[in-house]
């Protein structure tokens, strides 16, 4: 573990005493005091994990965006300027700090805060900002909320305003404990698997290259599960910390508590048991995808073309994650995979296949192929650079790339011929 990783782990651990302190002080403090406590805690965590450099970059975005709206007001132009300037600032960090492998830098905290800053002003523009009249300190408390500052989860200002104004917190500790244990299990599984079975850079090792193609594909399927478990574990622990402060409580129209998954980043059961790429994607990084749909995709509807809106939304996701070839490759493979699933479902549903093949075999086969495709794309996400990605994908003959494209081409040809035959019959 590097020093930066150690500081990040320390920051996540320190979020827990901050969350318990906030929980204890809630009945005794005013909303303004809560804002101050959360702001100071967020600044301290940023300074610990990313030193003065990270604090400076974060301050430029947070204060600069607020000052712009004080001078120009909250209008479509100022919101667009904030969005573009914060994205350019983030891309500057990615480009200047990028390396062959992932390193923790100030861009980690910046990309999380970027979502909140932009949603705050866009919600005001849409008259959905909650208690926006609360002022500057409530804005800081929202953006710098310590339990979600480092690795998420994301939430909007309306949810923060509800926490800020409440005098008590429901009994969220049992739910937080379950989330924490879930995170520990995933993290424990990640490191145990890594130490016992998966050496560093295994995908580029001579041993991996020597395997046959089927063995390689099965190996990367299990390898991707190992990689994903790290993210699920960290997000679950961060969500547990947020639950302690009352963040994530779900209520019905009468104010009664009905659940504790309001800010879940992953719907774990659906994610682990899904049989399609589409279902897995909709259960992964839920809050970020919801943000993109609300603040990017829907705002591009004015273009009058859903396809263009979808491309812009995917482009934002790519640049928000980082400017690596491997990230673009992951989105490409996922898009081809979802399109291929839709193409296959037009001609062959699971029930139809079960007439000829035992249903358990169909389900298991679909589950394995889905995970294999996701794992194939995640290899690029892990390897990042073009050189490393090309070295790996050459060793597996770019099989899913050309295989998925070929499937879509064949389906398009079949559909076109079927349309022509139908037209002739009608004549």
Q: What this model shows, in words?
A:
- With 427 residues, the protein is mostly helical.
- Helices cover 74% and strands 1% of the residues.
- The protein has a two-stranded antiparallel ribbon with strand order 1-2.
Q: Descriptors for this entry?
A:
single chain; 427 residues; mainly alpha; 2 strands; 1% strand
Radius of gyration: 23 Å
> What does the largest sheet look like?
2 strands, antiparallel
Physical arrangement of strands within the biggest beta sheet: 1-2
Helical segment tally? 19
Q: Determine the oligomeric state from the structure.
A: single chain
- Helix and strand sequence: HHHHHHHHHHEEHHHHHHHHH
Shape: globular
Mean pLDDT: 87
As a percent range, the share of strand residues is under 5%
Report how far the terminal alpha carbons are from each other. 71 Å
Detail the poorly predicted runs: 129-133
Give the number of DSSP strands: 2
Please estimate the helix content: over 70%
Structural class: mainly alpha
């Amino acid at each position: 573990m590097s020093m930066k990783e150690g500081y990040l782990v320390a920051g996540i651990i320190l979020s827990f005493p901050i969350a318990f302190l906030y929980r204890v002080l809630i009945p005794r403090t005013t909303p303004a005091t809560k804002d101050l406590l959360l702001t100071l805690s967020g600044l301290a965590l940023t300074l610990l994990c990313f030193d003065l450099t990270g604090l400076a970059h974060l301050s430029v975005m947070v204060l600069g965006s607020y000052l712009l709206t004080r001078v120009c007001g909250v209008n479509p132009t100022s919101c667009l300027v904030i969005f573009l300037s914060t994205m350019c600032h983030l891309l500057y960090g990615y480009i200047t700090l990028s390396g062959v492998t992932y390193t923790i830098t100030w861009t980690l905290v910046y990309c999380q805060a970027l979502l909140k800053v932009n949603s705050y002003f866009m919600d005001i523009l849409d008259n959905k900002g909650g208690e926006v009249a609360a002022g500057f300190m409530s804005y800081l408390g929202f953006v710098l909320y310590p339990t979600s500052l480092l690795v998420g989860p994301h939430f909007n200002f309306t949810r923060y305003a509800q926490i800020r104004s409440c005098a008590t917190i429901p009994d969220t500790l049992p739910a937080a404990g379950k989330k924490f244990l879930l995170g520990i299990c995933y993290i424990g599984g990640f490191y145990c698997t890594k130490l016992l079975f998966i050496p560093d850079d295994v995908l580029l090792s001579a041993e991996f290259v020597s395997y046959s193609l089927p063995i390689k594909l099965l190996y990367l399927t299990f390898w991707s599960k190992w990689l994903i478990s790290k993210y699920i574990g960290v997000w679950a622990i961060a969500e547990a910390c947020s639950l302690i402060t009352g963040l994530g409580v779900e209520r019905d129209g009468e104010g009664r508590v009905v659940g504790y998954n309001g800010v879940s980043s992953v719907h774990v059961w659906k994610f682990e048991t899904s049989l399609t790429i589409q279902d897995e994607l909709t259960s992964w990084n839920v809050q970020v995808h919801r943000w993109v749909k609300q603040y990017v995709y829907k705002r591009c509807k004015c273009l009058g073309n859903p396809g263009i809106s979808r491309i812009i939304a995917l482009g934002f996701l790519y640049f928000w994650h980082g400017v690596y070839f491997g990230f673009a490759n992951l989105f490409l493979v996922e898009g081809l995979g979802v399109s291929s699933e839709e193409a296959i479902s037009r001609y062959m549903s699971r029930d139809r296949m079960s007439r000829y093949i035992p249903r358990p075999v169909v389900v298991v086969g679909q589950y394995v192929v889905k995970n294999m495709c996701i794992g194939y794309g995640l290899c690029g996400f892990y390897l990042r650079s073009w050189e490393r990605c090309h070295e790996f994908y050459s060793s597996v003959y770019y099989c899913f790339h050309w295989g998925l494209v070929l499937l879509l081409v064949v389906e398009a040809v079949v559909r076109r011929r079927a349309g022509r035959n139908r037209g002739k019959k009608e004549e």
